[in-house]
Amino acid sequence: GAVVSQHPSRVICKSGTSVKIECRSLDFQATTMFWYRQFPKQSLMLMATSNEGSKATYEQGVEKDKFLINHASLTLSTLTVTSAHPEDSSFYICSARGTGSNSPLHFGNGTRLTVT
Amino acid sequence: KNQVEQSPQSLIILEGKNCTLQCNYTVSPFSNLRWYKQDTGRGPVSLTIMTFSENTKSNGRYTATLDADTKQSSLHITASQLSDSASYICVVSSFNAGNMLTFGGGTRLMVKP
Questions:
Q1: Quick check: B31 and A110 CB within 8 A?
Q2: Which residues of B touch A104 (CB under 8 A)?
Q3: Which of the residues in chain B have pLDDT under 70?
Q4: Which of A45, A93, A101 sits opposite B95 (nearest CB)?
Q5: pLDDT, tens digit, for every residue of B74-85?
């Protein structure tokens, strides 16, 4: 069964609004969570790495003020797309990993964001 | 620079046939290599995870190999089914930087009847 729950699966919002995406680890404590963006027919692009209780580490080119990440607990991380624009429309996926270098990396089912 | 290259980028095969996907990496120091299957519009699902000492690992009709000397991995799919149509992503983890992950570009497989 799914061990990482991502919500919502689809969201449509208007330009200028903010959207929050949740990523929950269901049966393990996720010390590290990752957020990705995926364009059609392309592989995953890592946006940021989130460690519980500390600030997220953003990849080069990703605006931290636009993509707010909060990892307040060992089972929940959120990604908020602020002041969304149509070019933010994409598929966003989270993943979570427990302790240990060989801990499985579990992915959420993704969120399809459409900004109109 | 850590890189993961996958080939081919896309592949079309007939149902029942076998196929092999390739993954070459330059990630160092190497921790582990994972193969994921991603159905369209879904999150990736783990197929196998291989550490330095493992050469072959199977998961049903999927068999992954790893040659740590040449830094190559392959994913072999036997007796393909229509449901195997998906993107297959190779992800390599490094001991550096908190087990940094490097993603391959994926191989898009289409199995036709």
A1: no
A2: 46, 49
A3: 97-99
A4: A101
A5: 999 999 999 999
